[in-house]
Structures are given as C-alpha cells and as structure tokens.
Amino acid sequence: MKAAIILLQSGWVKKNTDDYMLAWTIYSKNAELLNNDLTMKLADSYKFELVEKSNKN
C-alpha cells in the first residue's frame, strides 16, 4: 500500500493521470481488502470474548 500511496502522490504532483488512476485503483482495492480482513478479525475476537465471558458465569 505504501508504494501505491507514493505513486498516487507522484501522479498527482506530475499531473500524470495514468499513474494516478493506477495507484488509486491499487490503493482502494488493498484498503478495501484490509478493512474487510480487520473487520472479520475484530468480529471474531468480539465473539470469542462474548463466549469466554459467558463461560465464566
């Protein structure tokens, strides 16, 4: 993602729309995948905590 951000910035500065659009596509797709992955991991963690707390009672 860091490379996509750098390419995004340089494409914007140089007004190179091909670089900018390519970088934006890479960045947005990776950000979407990362957000989905983190959401699933947090949801799994939250479910685990609920199960753990209910087992203690």
Explain briefly what this protein structure is.
The protein is mostly helical and 57 residues long. The chain is built from two helices and no strands.
Number of strand segments: 0
Give the DSSP E fraction (strand runs of 2 or more residues).
under 5%
Mean pLDDT: 77
Structural class: mainly alpha
Structural shape? rod-shaped
What order do the SSEs take from the amino end to the carboxyl end, as H and E?
HH
What is the number of domains?
1
Portion of residues within helices: over 70%
Write down the Rg.
19 Å
| Count of alpha and pi helical runs | 2
Query: pLDDT under 50 segments (min length 5)?
Result: none
Biggest sheet, in brief? Answer: none
Give the termini separation.
44 Å
Task: Explain how this protein is built.
The chain has helices at 2-13, 17-56. The chain is mainly α. α1 (2-13) runs antiparallel to α2 (17-56). The chain is rod-shaped and about 60 Å long. It is built from two helices and no strands. 91% of the residues lie in helices and 0% in strands. The chain has one domain.
Helix/strand layout:
Layout: H1 2-13, H2 17-56
Annotation keywords:
57 residues, mainly alpha, rod-shaped
